[in-house]
Amino acid sequence: MIIHKSEREIALMHEAGKVVAEALEEIEKVIRPGVTTLELNQLVEDIMQKRGARPAFKGYRGFPASICTSINSEVVHGIPGLKTLSDGDIISIDIGAEINGYYGDAARTFPVGSVDEVSVRLIKVTAECLEKGIQQCTKNKRLTDISFAIQSHAEANGFSVVKEFVGHGIGRALHEDPQLPNFGRPGRGPRLTPGMVLAIEPMVNTGGSLTEVLADNWTVVTRDGGRSAHFEHTVAITENGPLILTRR
């Protein structure tokens, strides 16, 4: 069941979303070779505490950390630890926050030091996929219009989209209906109507689309070892078009 949000609820979600946006902005300032993913996790926990927010991921289905840190061939759900970032890495940071019972969720992929040309293109194209998906978030479009826009742009640039993990509705729960694939034919699925709020999150690979889960039962990696990028925003459908709730 798709739960539509009132203007008041969307405003509350925006408060959570602004904390997520701030955390990603602060992470961008400290990403460099030699930093550990555990340090990034602690930075976000400190920001959440100052802003009166709760890390949405910590304890969610047993997840042990406050953010997801996915490096190079890791797609999503990487667990922060003592891993040190190296020059040439790329790292995807996924952050969720809850304030007053409402959630915001966003992700970005960052270069570490000097990265290769393919990785630069991967990051750029994945960010563009997110923007093209958001552009479809207008009244009376269909859900898979978003999916098609993401897949089309990724594949036109020689990349593939992950099909085993998807975006989702969000509100008083971190994950709500509907599921939002990053692939598919346009013009299908529920019609987009004001009050719907979606976490749109393209995951794009340099190689094939297939993934697998590591022995920690969380970290998702590309099956062929190709690099992966991940961008995400929480977006409300309004009478006047898309409203990005995870942007300050």
CATH superfamily: Creatinase/methionine aminopeptidase superfamily
Radius of gyration: 17 Å
Globular, elongated, flat, extended or rod-shaped: what is the shape?
A: globular
Strand order of the largest sheet: 8-7-9-14-15
- Helix content bin: 25-40%
Topology summary:
Elements (H helix, E strand, L loop, with lengths): L6 H24 L6 H15 L2 E2 L11 E5 L2 E3 L13 E10 L2 E10 L5 H19 L7 H14 L3 E2 L5 E3 L6 E5 L16 E4 L2 E3 L5 E3 L6 E3 L5 E3 L2 E6 L2 E4 L4
Antiparallel strand pairs: 1-4, 2-4, 3-12, 4-5, 6-10, 7-8, 7-9, 9-14, 10-13, 11-12, 14-15
How do you describe this structure in short?
The protein has 248 residues and is of the alpha+beta class. The chain has helices spanning 7-30, 37-51, 117-135, 143-156, and strands spanning 54-55, 67-71, 74-76, 90-99, 102-111, 160-161, 167-169, 176-180, 197-200, 203-205, 211-213, 220-222, 228-230, 233-238, 241-244. The protein has a single domain, classed as Creatinase/methionine aminopeptidase superfamily (Creatine Amidinohydrolase).
How would you describe this protein?
The model has no long low-confidence stretch (mean pLDDT 98). The strands form 4 sheets. Strands 8-7-9-14-15 form a 5-stranded antiparallel beta sheet. α1 runs antiparallel to α2 (37-51) and α3 packs antiparallel against α4 (143-156). It is of the alpha+beta class and 248 residues long. The chain contains 4 helices and 15 strands. It has one domain: Creatinase/methionine aminopeptidase superfamily (Creatine Amidinohydrolase), CATH 3.90.230.10. The protein has helices at residues 7-30, 37-51, 117-135, 143-156, and strands at residues 54-55, 67-71, 74-76, 90-99, 102-111, 160-161, 167-169, 176-180, 197-200, 203-205, 211-213, 220-222, 228-230, 233-238, 241-244. It is 29% helix and 27% strand. A hairpin with a 2-residue loop joins β14 (233-238) and β15.
